[in-house]
Design goal:
This protein is mostly helical and 139 residues long. The protein has a single domain, classed as Orthogonal Bundle (Non-ribosomal Peptide Synthetase Peptidyl Carrier Protein, Chain A), CATH 1.10.1200.120. 68% of the residues lie in helices and 10% in strands. A two-stranded antiparallel ribbon has the order 1-4. Helix 2 crosses helix 3. The radius of gyration is 32 Å and the shape is elongated.
């Protein structure tokens, strides 16, 4: 039973829960940014480059062997277009995440820099203030 209690204590610590929430939100954010890259950014970029789809770019290392209209062995290709696409995706996603974290940091700094209201005096401080004021009046 001791291990279960330790695991419960571990799982219920704030850092683990914060990390779990971060992973969930991060994966959802990753899907949004992946869609931004694949559906919004890459099509116009492909048009600017002459209608090229990056995933179709490849270099043939070995041509296929075809005998009597039947493919005996498939072509061996170096698919550098997929690599370029993945690299562009990574760079754009990284930049978006950087901007998101930068925005959160800015908001956090603004909330930290706002001066907090001074704490209300305790009952002892109130009582001491009243005593001091009474002593001043008697003098």
């Amino acid at each position: 039973m001791g291990i279960l209690k330790e695991f419960k204590d571990f799982a219920m610590r704030g850092n683990v829960i914060d990390m779990a929430v971060g992973v969930i939100i991060g994966s959802a954010f990753g899907k949004i940014v992946s869609s931004l890259v694949a559906d919004i950014i890459m099509p116009p970029l492909g048009v600017l480059l002459g209608g090229v789809h990056f995933s179709e770019l490849s270099f043939v290392l070995k041509k296929p062997i075809i005998e009597n209209g039947v493919e005996i062995s498939t072509a061996v290709t170096l698919n550098y277009g997929n690599f370029l696409q993945t690299t562009f995706d990574f760079l754009i996603i990284s930049f978006c995440i950087f901007m998101f974290v930068k925005g959160l940091s800015t908001l956090k700094k603004k909330s930290e820099s706002a001066p907090a209201a001074p704490p209300a005096p305790s009952n002892e401080e109130k009582l001491l203030t009243e005593i001091r004021d009474l002593l001043k009046e008697k003098q």
